[in-house]
Amino acid sequence: MTPDEARRIALDDALSAHPRGQTVIVGCGNLLRGDDAIGPTLVRHLWELGVPDGVTLVDGGTAGMDVAFKMRGARRVVIVDASATGAEPGTIYRVPGSELEDLPPLDGLHTHAFRWDHALSFGRWLLADEYPDDIEVFLVEAAQTDPGAPLSPAVDAAMQHVIAMITATWDHAAVEPEP
Description:
Distance between the termini: 55 Å
Largest sheet: 5 strands, mixed
Radius of gyration: 16 Å
CATH topology: Rossmann fold
Number of helices: 6
């Protein structure tokens, strides 16, 4: 099978496409691992706040391959996940997706090791002209990833700050009721 044939087969599902102009917010991480739950927890908080037309929330969990398909046709994508760089817990990194697209692939990469950052370069190839124009990634430094633990206070506070940054960028026309 050629790469073009593989692309056609992979994109044969119209349900994975989002309308053009759509903003897709993807929260990545494991709900069962303390601060690693920041992405899915943030998505749940945004849902509770109310989602304007034109915004889709996605619990990306730990399935990086799904992230590539959820970006299809979106104009803007925001990805939120935990990081472990050794910085102060709760540190927020705001990174343009373009800076993360060309990370070198891991040797022996397979679907079980496929993360959202791999989804960026894979998505650029797979989605071609349906790849988002604007991708932004928020990474929040984790304090702990103990099984069953809640978000740490530092990460919870950082999550609230990221929520404020995300909602500030929503199209105000989409959230204001018509007269």
